[in-house]
């Protein structure tokens, strides 16, 4: 069987499309979509970059026989616009009804008439059409290689995750191990969690808590990425890690340096520990543990078919990369972290706080907000110890303070926010949610996330561009 084709759309684009197709008059309306592509081993994703509403009576007209059609010049303009930047042209229109939808014979005949010619003229990888009911969508994709495939589903990334199909899918009863949480969000919510592929980048203190939480909640697939090994100083925070993992008997201060170096080289990768813990969940996720840097191009490529990414690595190059993946592939990214600031001269604790920052797509960008500054990028890219060790600060070999409770605050905020959005319980309409918890004052505040129009990572040139764009990987 060929790989499924699906589509992702941001909350903002979905609102634009949905309000145009369903203004409340129960008549047919149409629009075109310009999409990037993510061609991954698990399937092909269309990534909506732009929605162009067709004006009723001008771009979308009624023929004498009562059927509706997009006028040829409107189609041509949009097909050519998509072709100029290697995007995929998709036509969308609506039918009546709510939860079930399919193309009419007239719809299918018009695809037959025009799509082979469009594919031939533009050399685009695909062209296609969607038809919507209020809560359902069907798609008919025509591919350059001559195949014709349906759209498997449409995902709306937004305040609450929505997955639309052509007819309601049956929901299995949740495993009895999930009885208590399924009482909160139902079998449907539990099934939504099972359908998720979630990545955790960075399996230090925060990442290990996230991995454990996600697996206990019942996530279906976990992608864990980290190239670091367990050290004795991690054992106070790393979930599931033991002295055996840290090879403490070799890395002990009493040992000669060459024995300690050997111990550090033999200690367990952090991803291995996290995978071991994740697999103890009642219904274990399918875990893919990658003991390599996310900055390697083929490792970064593994993120492309995720539904959500948790960013728990705090080096600037990794932050820049994951932030770019989120906007380029329309995958929400939550950055989690905890920081303690200490006055170097007096030793006074200035600040201790935990953050959870949910970014877009299309809203909230770590680069725009100045969090991934050019200074940090330069420093972290040139100092190899900075790339590896989140424990060290300021470019100096002084271990930064870190404590499991701060990580737990940050990861609980992040995981809870993700959970409510995934199971449909979120009551905020924000696509972006930046929370800052002050551990000394006991206060919580919302930080303002920004996106700048000219940003090379979240702006129109990068947004939803998928495989046609490049990522800031190491090479
Ligand atoms: Zn139709
Ligand atoms: Zn940006």
Give a quick precis of the structure:
The chain is α/β, with parallel strands linked by helices and 475 residues long.
Q: What does this protein look like?
A:
With 475 residues, the protein is α/β, with parallel strands linked by helices. It folds into 2 domains: 5-164, Cytidine Deaminase, domain 2, CATH 3.40.140; 182-228 and 269-447, Rossmann fold. It contains 14 helices and 20 strands. The protein has helices spanning 11-21, 72-84, 105-122, 179-194, 205-217, 243-246, 248-251, 257-266, 270-278, 297-300, 316-329, 374-382, 384-388, 404-423; strands at 5-10, 30-40, 43-53, 60-62, 68-70, 88-94, 126-133, 136-143, 148-157, 162-164, 197-201, 221-225, 286-290, 308-311, 333-342, 349-359, 392-393, 398-399, 433-438, 443-447. The strands form 4 sheets. Strands 13-12-11-14-15-16-19-20 form an 8-stranded mixed sheet, with helices on both faces. A 7-stranded mixed β-barrel has the order 1-3-2-6-7-8-9. Strand 7 and strand 8 (136-143) form a beta hairpin. Helix 5 runs parallel beside helix 9. The protein is elongated and about 90 Å long. The protein starts with a strand and ends in a 28-residue tail after the last strand. One zinc ion binds at residues 93, 95, 104, 107, 131.
Calculate the mean pLDDT score and round it: 93
Q: How far from one another are the termini?
A: 34 Å
**What is the CATH topology of the largest domain?**
Rossmann fold
Oligomer: single chain
What's the main sheet like? 8 strands, mixed
Total helices: the number is 14
Give the proportion of residues in helices: 25-40%
CATH superfamily of the largest domain: NAD(P)-binding Rossmann-like Domain
Strand content: 25-35%
CATH architecture label of the largest domain: 3-Layer(aba) Sandwich
